[in-house]
Amino acid sequence: MHPLVDLGNAVSAAYAIPVGILDVARCGGGIEVRHAQGDERYLTLGGVEEQPDPAEVIFADPLGRAHARRWTNRQSGWSAVREDTSTVLVVVEAMHDSAARDAPRLLDTLAEELDRGWGASTRTTLLTPAAPGFRVDVAAGSDVG
């Protein structure tokens, strides 16, 4: 397991907030959180291909692949963090009463640890109904297949 996954799991446990970590270059040109149609492809971490249930919440790319199912509870082998991963999307899902305070604190902690452990630059964005998206530009030549 990649040490970044260990960090994500530790921060998730410390704040009791689900955390998902996706390799941006392997996300097929973007991610949209939406309900599954049921024809998307999902690759388990064990290498078995499945299809999400219709109406299940997934993180889908334009190629019809689901990079996470049941929100971030089941992350996909398509975009799992690997040794050659250079850009990640960290998803924090919090809808409890104090989520507006807790999620930014978790993101700050994670950013501090990424800087301390890897010297990584980070950018955080809190999505809301008024601001439901953001863009990440991946360097040309990256693996999007």
TrEMBL record:
Superkingdom in the source lineage: Bacteria
Residue intervals of the B3/B4 tRNA-binding domain: 2-106
GO molecular function: phenylalanine-tRNA ligase activity; RNA binding
The protein's name: B3/B4 tRNA-binding domain-containing protein
Source organism (scientific name): Micromonospora sonchi
Source species taxonomy: Bacteria, Bacillati, Actinomycetota, Actinomycetes, Micromonosporales
